[in-house]
Amino acid sequence: MEQNTFEIGIQETDGDIQQKKKIAKKWCVEAKKVWQIAGPAILNAISLFSLEFVTAAFAGRLGDLELAAVSEVHNVIAGFVYGVMLGMASALATLCGQAVGAGQFNMLGVYLQRSWIITGFTSLLLTPMFVFTSPILKLLRQDKDISHLAGKYAIWIIPQMFAYALNFPMQKFLQSQSKVWFMAITSMGGLAVHVLLNWVLVVKVGWGLFGAAIAGNVSWWLLDIAQFVYIISGYFPEAWTGFSCLAFKSLTNFLKLSLASAIMVCLEFWYFTAVILMVGGFKNATTSVDAISICIGLQLWTLTVAYGFTSSTSVRVSNELGAGNPKAAKFSISVNVLISAVIGLVFSATILATKKEFPRLFTNEQHVIRETSKLVYILAAIMFLNGIQPVLLGVAVGAGWQLQVALISIGCYYGFGLPMGALLGYKFKFGVEGILSAMLAGSLLQTLFQFVIIARTSWHKQALQAEERVRTWGGEVENQSSPAIGKSCSMDS
Q: In its keyword annotation, does this UniProt entry include Transmembrane (predicted)?
């Protein structure tokens, strides 16, 4: 009797071991899928993010005025447009990702063309921002000389804005099909070309800021040409079948999802800008602005890495929902959150370990170093949170929750975080520490809300909604409703 009990115990133990091995294997398989997307996506994001830093570095060689002008344009005008374009293209990530999961490749090229139409028209609407950059900056009480030069530079880089309009939809088209290594390689190559062009045009030829603008325009358009040629060259026989008049159908619904996506992404970008502007309202704010700028600059660098997991999460979630695998979608979220959180923890630990040294990478002014060091614990907490938030953003994109998350961001960031920052910073005299703490509180509240939504979501229902979205948006209904239009207007590339 005792022997039988012992044998049963051994059997149960062996069963537990096998179960644990099965779970571990499942985690390893999913982690491999995540890194296959996130790794190249991180390289792509860092390369694109570095383009403006290269431009700023060469502008700095020309003088303080040129550097200030470039920084104003990139941070205020081009940064705003970049966020809008990237956000609007995120609608494509939802639709293409779910269509790929469902095996409905036939409409991916049409989705891409619809996105081009919308982002191209948006570019036309935003062009006056570049044309009137100088009066806009003067209205914001910026230095007149800086504003005047920034106005010229902004007009010179208008072609970059139209490059964004083509580039970001192509990124989402490729990303949804996990063709991320091509994106990474072309963006790294584009960065190398950008450095070379700046060296030739700015330093050797001596075209100054105009040369820097030309280098940026050429680099972005070379990226567009490379991606476009790749898409139409036969590598996507099912997804790209040529230009079609179907691209002009259902634009209203597509626009609604694009606008919701743009609002969701822009609210994230503008939160950082609002915090800097709030700190700039202090008396003798130079030191505070320098300190908060260093902190936010570091946050943006870590977010650039973390946004690789936005891509991996959106692709995995959208693909699995489109394929009718809700459990796999939920499991992928867990894996992405864990990996990204560990990376965020590493960033936090690094900042804490170098709290007296890292400010010296940005400044030699002792008062700025001291002020920045005071913020290190808040900054470390934000960096850890930055390891989680982008994953939740990817869930929203993959599942099509853009409008819902945008509303949460409005409440948490602008209804809670910024007013709390004003109270702590100005009313209760906590200064920059109070404002940054409020920023952390707003981000934490948003993260908690998103976790609650994810935990309470019926993923089976989400899979059914993805199936319905693919059916009504992709081919089955549209091709049946107007086959003649699709056929007669189609034009092989």
A: yes
User: In which domain, by residue range, is 435 found?
Assistant: 267-470
Same domain, 236 and 330: no
Q: Does 488 reside within a domain? A: no
Same domain as 452, residue 309: yes
Model pTM score: 0.84
- Is 223 domain-assigned? yes
Same domain assignment for residues 100 and 155: yes
Q: How many of the other CB atoms lie within 10 Å of CB of 476?
A: 14
Q: Are 297 and 208 members of one domain?
A: no
Same domain, 240 and 279: no
182-218 pLDDT, tens per residue? 999 999 999 999 999 999 999 999 999 999 999 999 9
HEC sequence for 287-302: HHHHHHHHHHHHHHHH
Residues 161 and 302 in one domain: no
